[in-house]
Amino acid sequence: MKINNRDLKIFVLGMVALFTIQTVYDWKQVKQDITRGWNDGYNADIK
After folding, report:
1. What is the pLDDT of residue 46?
2. Residue among 11, 5, 30 nearest 20 (CA)
3. How far is CA 47 from the centre of its chain?
4. Are 23 and 30 within 8 A, CB to CB?
5. Domain assignment of residue 34, given as a range
6. Which top-level group of life is the source organism from (predicted)?
7. Residues contacting residue 22 through CB under 8 Å, at least 6 positions apart
8. Alpha carbons 32 and 10: distance in angstroms, whole number
């Protein structure tokens, strides 16, 4: 079985679509996680 360029494009497009739908559907949690990750990373660099 050979993987075509078209197959890879469809796979990547599907992953981007899932990420976008999940982000829009649960925006409050995504925003909270991004903020927590930013603050944890910033504080870890200072120590």
Report:
1. 63
2. 30
3. 28
4. yes
5. 5-46
6. Bacteria
7. 30
8. 30
47 token code pair: 């120590």
Write out the two tokens for 4.
């075509």
Would you say residue 1 has pLDDT above 90?
Answer: no
Output the pTM of the full model: 0.64
Query: How many angstroms separate the Cα of 17 from the Cα of each of 11, 24, 35, 36?
Result: 10, 11, 23, 24
Total domains in the chain come to 1
Give the C-alpha separation, 43 to 11, whole Å: 37
What secondary structure, in 3-state letters, does the chain show?
CCCCHHHHHHHHHHHHHHHHHHHHHCHHHHHHHHHHHHHHHHHHHHC
